[in-house]
Amino acid sequence: MSRVVSFSTDNEFADNLENLIEKSGYKNRSRFLRDASLYFADLQQRGELVNMQDDEIIEGHLIVYYQHLHGVENKLMDIRHSLELDVSSYNHSCLKHSHTCVDIIQAIGSAVKFRNIIEKLQNTPHVNKISFITAPIRDEGCC
Predict the structure, then answer these.
(1) Residue 48 to residue 43: CA distance in whole angstroms
(2) Is the pTM of this model over 0.90?
(3) Spatial CA neighbour of 66 closest among 52, 57, 79, 49
(4) Is residue 126 within 8 Å of 64, Cβ to Cβ?
(5) Domain that holds residue 42
(6) Which of 11, 41, 106, 140 is in Cβ range 3.0-4.6 Å of 89 for a Cys bridge?
(7) φ, ψ (nearest 5 deg) of residue 142
C-alpha cells in the first residue's frame, strides 16, 4: 500500500531534482526520495561508525579486498571464529579482472568491536581496501 506525501522546496532544488535522481541511477522519484530520507535519518540518528557510541550494537557487512597467499586469510579466519563479532554469513570471491580477493563478512556486534577489527585489518600488509556498510534501522520488517 502506498500513500502520497508532498513537501515544499525552493525553486532551484525543484529544478535540479530530476537531474539529481537521474545522476544517482534512479528511475523513480518516490524511491529516490524514500531511500535518501532513510539514509539521512540513519546517518543523523547513528552517525558514521567512527562516531558511534562504543556500546552501540550494529549489524552490517564488512568488505575486505586483499591479496591472498600473504597470511590475510588466516587473520580473516581468526576474526570469523573469534567472539568479537557474531558472524551470520561469510563469502569469498576472486575478482579476476582486478586481480584481487574479496571477503564479505555479515555480522552483528558493538561499534567498538567493528572499529577495532577494521583498524587491525587496515594495518595488515596486502589488505587493499576495507568498507563497512551498516544495515538500516527498522522497527519491523521481513526478518
Answers:
(1) 7
(2) no
(3) 79
(4) no
(5) 11-46
(6) 106
(7) -75, -25
67 & 15 share domain: no
Letter string b/e over residues 41-79, b meaning 16 or more CB atoms within 10 A of that residue's CB: eeeeebeebeebeeebebbbbbebbbeeeeebeebbeeb
Euclidean distance between CA atoms 131 and 11, whole angstroms: 37
pLDDT at 137: 76
Sign of CA pseudo-dihedral 82, 78, 128, 95: negative
- Mean pLDDT in each 10-residue stretch from start to end of the chain (143 residues)? 86 91 91 88 84 93 91 91 94 94 96 95 93 85 76
Burial of 100 (0-12, 13-18, 19+ CB in 10 A): middle
| Whether 64 and 92 share a structural domain | yes
